[in-house]
Structure formats: structure tokens, C-alpha cells
Task: inverse folding
């Protein structure tokens, strides 16, 4: 492990609350595609004065504040607006955190939430944002709508699949790795066997975190029920049938398909001897330094991976391949405007205007663009600036996006799904339940939603 880089990983140890990263030098800044001040002020004519206003942001992205807070003094000098960052308590989901704030009468002006939270809270709590400048620059594509009303600002583009360490694979096998050759679960199993034969004892890493298992992995069952462009429709249909008891998870083909892949990931898992004692920071290290070749995760881990890896190491992303060759999802990865920002519709008029100005600043100001793309190592949702080419996992995701090889996230899962269902999958991962018992526990969760 490269100890001189360990701090970078420490900052990103919290789940897919992932928008963190080490700062890059000024020479690595991503060029803006638009003039920041002109664009940011284009909708500010005749607006209410915001001088002296304080706005608060509920931050559910652990470590993000470390990159923005140093810029807030300059932001105040330019705008007269004070921006306060408020982190959620450890152990709380974004939904749990904001519900506590609502109950206490302490509602933040802006809140960085998960997609499903916006669907649940948007119509009652969030300000409609359809007319904002940034909508035409990418916000309309990745923002969350309810009944055709846009209630959120998409913060960054994230995707998940099987990450791979190209350098480790090629050094172990002594040949170039063609990721397009991995088209089915049989292909994936074969290369894991080949890597073991070449001396890589554990080719995969499987993390134990409930958010990874309950949201990211099990979410695939709902996202892959039908075609790639009908995720919401087919996901809702499965949700309804599980809730009313007319369907059982163990009889669902997609559940069994992704669990077959899960079993293969378990078979080669570097944490396999004691999977529930796995350490997420060590998982980053295993993958970055090539102790393992494959890791089910998303591009948000790049900052941590970059913190450990040598500069010349190469990485990429595979779909979560499954057991049938003609499965369309064997060639697709999930991509979503992850972490959505909503504005409290009941905030004071000046606070609402200041919040709108802040969102424009994120899209159009060069300082904010540098924080997002270079320091935070995020993939922008907007066409006003690009991801850093140094972000190798982000660029891998962008390749799928550019080729149209993505599917949307299903946003209809309840706020406690990742914790409750994630705990059931942890039991399966730890050998404490069978697949049938896991499916039965998931059925019970859904039937309790009636």
C-alpha cells in the first residue's frame, strides 16, 4: 500500500457518497466551454437581492465539503451570500436525515439527495426547476421529474458495473486484455480461472457495504426486467407484484440471473474467508494495486483508486455480465445523474434566489468546474465542461454514455431498501442464508410495504 496516498482514500471511505477526490495541479484544469459570469448571470435580471443572505446545504456526499468550503469565502466576496455546508449524521440515509430536519423545523435551503428521495419528496417539498438555464445544458437529461415536472439538479454522472484493472490483468496473463471478449458469465468465469492459474489467487473483490449490495446490486433486478428504455415501467411492475404478493422473488428470472453472477463474484472474492469483516478502504487498495482484477462498484471510487495506483496503470468498466449470450444487458452499464440537489420550496424568496444562483455557479463558473471535474474527480452531467482525462473510470463510463450503451437507474425503491435488503444480502454473502431464504426475506420486505 502506498502510505503517502492513504489520506486520499480515507476521505472516500463512505459508500457511494462518493463525490470526493484529491486536488490536481492548476495545469490539469478542465477548460470551460462557456463564459462563466455571462452564463451564470443570464437569468439574474430583475431578481430579488441576495446580499447578506445565508443558505444551507444538506450534504450527503461525504468529503465533498472539503473541496467546496475553501471556495466559499471567495463566493461570499463576489455574491454577498454565505453558504453553510451541513453533513448528515453517520448512519443516516439522506432521506432519514432530511426527515429529522423537517420534524425539527430546521429545513436546509438545498439538499443533496438520492434519486428516489426526489421522487418521494419532490412534489411536496421541492421547488420546480424547469425554467433554469442549466436545464438545456444537460439538466433535463439527468434531473428527476415527477409528472413531467423537474424537481432536482443532477450533480454528477455516475455508473456501476464490474470495474477492471487492465494493467493487473495484462501483467498476470502476459497478453493484451480485450474487455469486449467478456460477453457472458461463462466468459467472466473463464478469465477468473485463467488469472488464478497465472498466480492471481483472488481475481475478484466483493464489498460488504449494505448500500452496495442493497441498492447497487439488488437494484439491477428492478432495472433489468425489460428493455433498456423501460426501466421505470418494468421496475414499477415488479415492485407492485412483490408488494401485493402476486409474485415471489425466487421465481424471477432476473433475480436468479444476477445471483448466479453474485455467486461467481463470491467464489473468487479476496474477502471470501471472512466476507463480513471486509474493509472498504482495503478493497480500494486491492483493486488499485492489482491484487484483484475485478470489483463490482462504480466510477465514484476513482479518487480513492487514483490515490493508491501508479500513474501508468489503466482501468475500465464492464457490464455485470450474466449467463445468456443474447441478454441485452450484457453489453450495457448503468448511468445516472447521481446525487440530486433540490431547493426547499418554502424557503424565503431571497434564499430561493440565492440557491438558484448557486446551482448556476456550479454549472457555469470556472472555479466550480475545476472543483467538480479536477478536485472532486466527478463526471459532469452538463455540456459546459468535461470530465478530467485523468479520471480513468469516469472516462470509461463516458465511453458507454457516448455510445448509447447505458440504462437508467430505477428510482422507485423505498428509502430504507438499501439498509434492510442490504442486510439480508450480507447474510447470504456470509453464508448465513440460502438463495431461497434471501428471496423469502426480500418478499417479506416488500409485502410489509402495503
Result:
Amino acid at each position: 500500500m502506498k502510505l503517502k496516498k492513504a489520506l486520499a482514500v480515507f476521505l472516500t471511505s463512505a459508500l457511494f457518497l462518493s463525490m470526493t477526490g484529491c486536488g490536481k495541479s492548476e495545469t490539469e484544469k478542465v477548460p470551460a466551454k462557456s463564459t462563466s459570469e455571462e452564463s451564470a448571470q443570464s437569468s439574474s435580471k430583475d431578481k430579488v437581492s441576495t446580499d447578506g443572505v445565508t443558505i444551507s446545504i444538506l450534504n450527503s456526499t461525504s468529503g465533498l465539503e472539503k473541496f467546496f468550503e475553501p471556495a466559499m469565502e471567495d463566493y461570499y466576496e463576489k455574491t454577498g451570500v454565505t453558504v453553510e455546508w451541513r453533513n448528515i449524521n453517520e448512519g443516516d440515509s439522506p432521506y432519514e436525515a432530511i426527515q429529522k430536519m423537517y420534524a425539527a423545523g430546521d429545513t436546509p435551503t438545498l439538499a443533496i439527495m438520492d434519486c428516489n428521495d426526489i421522487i418521494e419528496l419532490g412534489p411536496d417539498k421541492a421547488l420546480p426547476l424547469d425554467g433554469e438555464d442549466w436545464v438545456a445544458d444537460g439538466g433535463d437529461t439527468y434531473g428527476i421529474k415527477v409528472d413531467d415536472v423537474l424537481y432536482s439538479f443532477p450533480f454528477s454522472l455516475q455508473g456501476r458495473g464490474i470495474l477492471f484493472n487492465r494493467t493487473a490483468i495484462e501483467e498476470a496473463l502476459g497478453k493484451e486484455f480485450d474487455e469486449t471478449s467478456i460477453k457472458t458469465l461463462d466468459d467472466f468465469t473463464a478469465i477468473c480461472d485463467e488469472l488464478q492459474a497465472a498466480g492471481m489467487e483472488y481475481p475478484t473483490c466483493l464489498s460488504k457495504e449494505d448500500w452496495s449490495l442493497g441498492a447497487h446490486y439488488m437494484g439491477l433486478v428492478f432495472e433489468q426486467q425489460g428493455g433498456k428504455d423501460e426501466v421505470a415501467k418494468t421496475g414499477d411492475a415488479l415492485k407492485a407484484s412483490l408488494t401485493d404478493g402476486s409474485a415471489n422473488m425466487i421465481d424471477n428470472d432476473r433475480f436468479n440471473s444476477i445471483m448466479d453472477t453474485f455467486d461467481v463474484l463470491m467464489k473468487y472474492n479476496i474477502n471470501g474467508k471472512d466476507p463480513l469483516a471486509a474493509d472498504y478502504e482495503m478493497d480500494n487498495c486491492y483493486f488499485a494495486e492489482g491484487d484483484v482484477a475485478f470489483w463490482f462498484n462504480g466510477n465514484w471510487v476513482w479518487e480513492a483508486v487514483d490515490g493508491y495506483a501508479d500513474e501508468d496503470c489503466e482501468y475500465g468498466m464492464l457490464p455485470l455480465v450474466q449467463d445468456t449470450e443474447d441478454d441485452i444487458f450484457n453489453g450495457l452499464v448503468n448511468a445516472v445523474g447521481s446525487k440530486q440537489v433540490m431547493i426547499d420550496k418554502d424557503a424565503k424568496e431571497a434564499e430561493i434566489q440565492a440557491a438558484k444562483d448557486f446551482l448556476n455557479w456550479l454549472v457555469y463558473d470556472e472555479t466550480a468546474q475545476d472543483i467538480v471535474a479536477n478536485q472532486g474527480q466527478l463526471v459532469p452531467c452538463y455540456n459546459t465542461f468535461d470530465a478530467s482525462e485523468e479520471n480513468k473510470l469516469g472516462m470509461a463510463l463516458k465511453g458507454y454514455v457516448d455510445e448509447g450503451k447505458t440504462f437508467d437507474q430505477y428510482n422507485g425503491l423505498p428509502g430504507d431498501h438499501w439498509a434492510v435488503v442490504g442486510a439480508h444480502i450480507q447474510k447470504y454473502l456470509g453464508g448465513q442464508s440460502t438463495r431461497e431464504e434471501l428471496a423469502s426475506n426480500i418478499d417479506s420486505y416488500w409485502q410489509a410495504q402495503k
